[in-house]
Amino acid sequence: MAAKNTFRKTPPKIRKKPSLLIKIKSLVYKVIYYFLIISVGSVILFKFIPIPFTLTMVDQKFSSLFSGDDSEIHYSWRSYDNISKEMPLAVVAAEDQLFPDHFGFDFKSMQNAYKNNLKGKKVRGASTISQQVAKNVFLWQGRSYIRKGLEVYFTTLIEIIWGKRRILEVYINVAEMGKNTFGVEAASQRYFGVSAKNINRNQAAKLAAVLPSPRKWSVTKPGPYVSRRVPKIMGQMRALGGVSYIKDLRKF
């Protein structure tokens, strides 16, 4: 008589569905991973090619369209070698005199600005040129902890990957210098009738003088504040030693 088969089939294991927490963690890891890939990749890419546009340009375009104003954006990229060195010197003298030496952040100015803001009602910033480039190229305008954190991240990236000369080149090309006017080439052509390569020290100082608030102040019709600011910037340009101050900016 044949023996009975006593072996039983092992029932298939029932796979547990991942919990909601695990799904959230997985999603967060993926978002961080792709953000790092895209952000680092874009910074590397823009080290070598001109910036096609910024979110500020897009915002100005749509704002002008909705208000019925002239919506043409004046923007023309010029390489660092095709821009008068008076212009990068002027923005350094006006905006960030420690630019050649710091690594993206001026902590002393930030501390002083924080103390000043605690005492008064007017908010005073201490953003370096590097921070402004990070904001203008990769982020949006406005104030929030998220945007500020991303600004720190992108500032560190461009300091490491771009170097000082590229940061300054991008800044003077994308900075807003008047209504719908971005960069030194477009501003020089519109306001002075010359190319960026041929502007003089006074003209460069005028463009730098309106940078804190280019929609409020005018290069062609300067008010009392801008009129006082221009000779001060020119004085600082001389005090720094002229264009030799930015001659040996770090390229890498």
Description:
With 252 residues, the protein is an all-alpha fold. It has two domains: 20-49; 52-65 and 74-246, Penicillin binding protein transpeptidase fold (Orthogonal Bundle). It is 53% helix and 3% strand. It contains ten helices and three strands. It has a three-stranded mixed beta sheet, with helices on one face. It is elongated. The model has no long low-confidence stretch (mean pLDDT 90).
Q: Helix and strand layout, with pairings?
A:
Blueprint: H1 20-45, H2 55-67, E1 74-75, H3 86-95, H4 107-119, H5 129-138, H6 145-161, H7 164-174, E2 176-178, E3 181-182, H8 184-191, H9 201-209, H10 224-239
Parallel strand pairs: 1-3
Antiparallel strand pairs: 2-3
Helix pairs in contact: 1-6, 3-9, 3-10, 5-6, 5-7, 9-10
What would the keywords be for this entry?
single chain, 252 residues, mainly alpha, Penicillin binding protein transpeptidase fold, 2 domains, 3-stranded mixed beta sheet
